[in-house]
């Protein structure tokens, strides 16, 4: 089966610092990766869609300068939360798609970010 | 605007009960509908549906899609406490997955 590895699973950082979250597809090439944010007891909110080698497409209301997404290869996408603030504390999940028309999204394990 | 709506938002049942979760959608470019189960961390895949009227089944779980009426249902029979989770429905439009708000299912002994 397809495996997506997300790292770290949990991170605590100080206000004003930056945090990088990695999302790797381990056994397939992910032409498209998605980054979601999830608040407690709520569904997944799509933040951005990234295609390998091109700029990410951000959803309305998501600050591209604050949430930097890089999809440099077919197996790796990164999300960097810059100048983190306590309100950025959340659960961030990535998913990857093989890019075929009818395919499922494979999810990483998620990252619990706490900004203190 | 593309959207996916799930109902009910939450459900509490007793072990052994049968539950039906609903997912309706309005998207401009439907490719497939997917069901996921989310416990504490990332969602785990349950079913992918592309054709109307064909039931997919896995143990006590089953799902079916109606592309004319634009909805899907997920059935769980003989529920167990381990079925307690949030069940997410998502629609693949080819370049994006739209998620519903999820149904939180609690199964009490």
Can you walk me through this structure?
The complex is a heterodimer of chains A (116) and B (109). Chain A has strands spanning 4-7, 10-13, 19-25, 32-38, 44-51, 57-58, 67-73, 76-81, 90-97, 106-107, 111-115. Chain A has 116 residues and is mainly β. In chain A, a hairpin with a 5-residue loop joins β4 and β5 (44-51). Chain B has no helices and eleven strands. Chain B has strands spanning 3-7, 10-14, 19-26, 32-38, 44-49, 56-58, 61-66, 71-76, 85-92, 97-99, 103-108. In chain B, the strands form two sheets. In chain B, strands 2, 4, 5, 9, 10 and 11 form a six-stranded mixed β-sheet that branches. In chain B, strands 1-3-8-7-6 form a five-stranded antiparallel β-sheet, with no helix packed on it. At the A-B interface, β4, β5, β9 and β10 of A face β4, β5, β9 and β10 of B.
Q: Which runs of chain B of at least 5 residues are low in confidence (pLDDT < 50)?
A: none
Biggest sheet features of chain B: 6 strands, mixed
How much of the sequence lies in strands of chain B comes to over 45%
What helical percentage do the residues of chain B reach? under 10%
Structural class of chain A: mainly beta
β-strand amount of chain A: over 45%
Instruction: Work out the helix count of chain B.
Output: 0
Task: Give the radius of gyration of chain A.
Answer: 13 Å
Offer a concise description of the structure:
Chain A has 116 residues and is mainly beta.
């Amino acid at each position: 089966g397809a495996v997506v590895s997300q790292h770290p699973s949990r991170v605590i950082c100080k206000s004003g610092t930056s945090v990088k979250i990695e999302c790797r597809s381990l056994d397939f090439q992910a032409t498209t990766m998605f980054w979601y944010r999830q608040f407690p007891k709520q569904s997944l909110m799509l933040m951005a869609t990234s295609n390998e080698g091109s700029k990410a497409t951000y959803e309305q209301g998501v600050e591209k300068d604050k949430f930097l997404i890089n999809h440099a290869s077919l197996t790796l996408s990164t999300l960097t939360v810059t100048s983190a603030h306590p309100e950025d504390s959340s659960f961030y999940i990535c998913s990857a798609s093989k890019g075929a028309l009818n395919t499922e999204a494979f999810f990483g394990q998620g990252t619990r970010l706490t900004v203190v | 605007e593309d959207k996916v709506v799930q109902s009910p938002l939450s459900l509490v049942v007793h072990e052994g009960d049968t539950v039906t979760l609903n997912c309706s959608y309005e998207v401009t470019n439907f490719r497939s509908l997917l069901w996921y189960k989310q416990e504490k961390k990332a969602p785990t895949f349950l079913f992918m549906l592309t054709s109307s009227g064909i039931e997919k089944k896995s143990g006590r779980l089953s799902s079916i899609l109606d592309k004319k009426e634009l909805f899907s249902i997920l059935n769980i029979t003989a529920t167990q406490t381990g079925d307690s989770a949030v069940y997410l429905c998502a629609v693949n439009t080819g370049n994006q997955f739209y998620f519903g708000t999820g149904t939180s299912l609690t199964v009490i002994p």
